[in-house]
């Protein structure tokens, strides 16, 4: 795990709040801030509307108070349904489940619950803020308490988004969304690699075209990013060019410059070879090793390969034992323990 300094967090906040996203794009941290402001605003506005409706009923003695309570309760029910409905009532879209109707990898229920609770708190803050602004009432003290409590998850989620966007994944994807069917043995390899606390682990992913190799590697990396591990995604061609450069970041935007690829606890190397059957590999282990062990930065490159966890998306539509063994042999030549190398074929 790698800590992100308060200076970097403050710099990201300034980047998100100052400037126009129409010319520089939208970051994950900005999207998270906008999402929570949307939760706040939905409850804030709906409380105002309900308050004016309740004013027409003389039987309601404290319309501002009851409007705040009612709207907070309504959004609480909505979020519970949003959480329990799709995930527990077997109504998820096919994209998250395999053909048998079950998850290939179980969702991280704890993380999803944490996200739901955070959303509920922002809804409640919006409802109570409008209620208190309309007429001061006892919800003011509850509002202060919720604001005090929400500081921790807000900081935690903002940091999580920084870890995710610093990895520069080509898309956002979680392990529970990967719906291909694999054997229990390979599934255990993936789970063990995702949850490992050890370093120097290598996972080789072979498979034909459209077998889900890239999405699986991104999903594994994203799960580790969510747990605040420093991860980096790159393609083999891009990485080969970085073998000849100093310890710079894969990313170009200054606000994402949190760690260089050599400092990432997990490195994902995608598109080493295509998933279609070829008579000759585009990148052979011997040529890859020659690029890796160059005269300029070979020592640093070899050290990175030995100490970091790495996912190799190796493709190969005609995968056989010979191809697998050549890559394993290259890794052992680097100095990686054979027991730290795992292979799966999709």
From TrEMBL:
Keywords: Membrane, Transmembrane, Transmembrane helix. It comes from the Bacteria. The chain crosses the membrane at residues 37-57, 64-84, 120-152. InterPro entries: P-loop_NTPase. SUPFAM superfamilies: P-loop containing nucleoside triphosphate hydrolases. Gene3D superfamilies: P-loop containing nucleotide triphosphate hydrolases. This is IstB-like ATP binding protein. It comes from Parasediminibacterium paludis. The lineage of its organism: Bacteria, Pseudomonadati, Bacteroidota, Chitinophagia, Chitinophagales.
């Amino acid at each position: 795990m790698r800590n992100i300094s308060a200076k970097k967090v403050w710099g990201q906040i300034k980047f998100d709040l100052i400037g126009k996203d129409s010319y520089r794009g939208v970051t994950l941290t900005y999207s998270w801030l906008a999402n929570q402001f949307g939760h706040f605003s939905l409850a804030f506005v709906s409380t105002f509307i309900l308050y004016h409706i309740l004013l027409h009923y003389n039987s309601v003695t404290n319309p501002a108070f009851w409007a705040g309570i009612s709207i907070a309760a309504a959004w609480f029910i909505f979020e519970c349904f949003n959480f329990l409905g799709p995930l527990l009532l077997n109504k998820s879209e096919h994209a998250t489940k395999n053909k048998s109707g079950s998850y290939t990898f179980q969702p991280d229920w704890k993380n999803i619950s944490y996200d739901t609770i955070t959303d509920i708190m922002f809804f409640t803050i919006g409802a109570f803020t409008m209620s208190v602004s309309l007429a001061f009432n006892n919800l003011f003290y509850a509002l202060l308490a919720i604001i005090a409590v929400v500081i921790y998850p807000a900081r935690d989620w903002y940091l999580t988004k920084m870890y995710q966007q610093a990895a520069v994944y080509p898309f956002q994807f979680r392990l529970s969304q990967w719906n291909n069917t694999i054997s229990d043995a390979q599934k255990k390899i993936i789970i063990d690699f995702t949850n490992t606390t050890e370093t120097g682990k290598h996972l080789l992913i072979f498979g034909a075209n459209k077998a889900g190799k890239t999405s699986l590697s991104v999903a594994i990396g994203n799960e580790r990013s969510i747990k605040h591990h420093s991860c980096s995604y790159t393609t083999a061609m891009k990485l080969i060019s970085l073998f000849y450069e100093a310890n710079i970041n894969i990313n170009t935007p200054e606000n994402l410059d949190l760690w260089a690829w050599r400092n990432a606890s997990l490195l994902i190397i995608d598109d080493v070879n295509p998933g279609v059957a070829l008579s000759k590999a585009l990148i052979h282990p011997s040529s890859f090793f020659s690029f890796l062990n160059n005269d300029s930065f070979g020592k640093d490159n070899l050290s990175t390969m030995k100490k970091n966890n790495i996912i190799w998306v190796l493709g190969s539509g005609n995968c056989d034992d010979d191809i697998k063994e050549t890559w394993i042999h290259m890794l052992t030549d680097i100095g990686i323990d054979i027991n730290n190398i795992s292979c799966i074929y999709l």
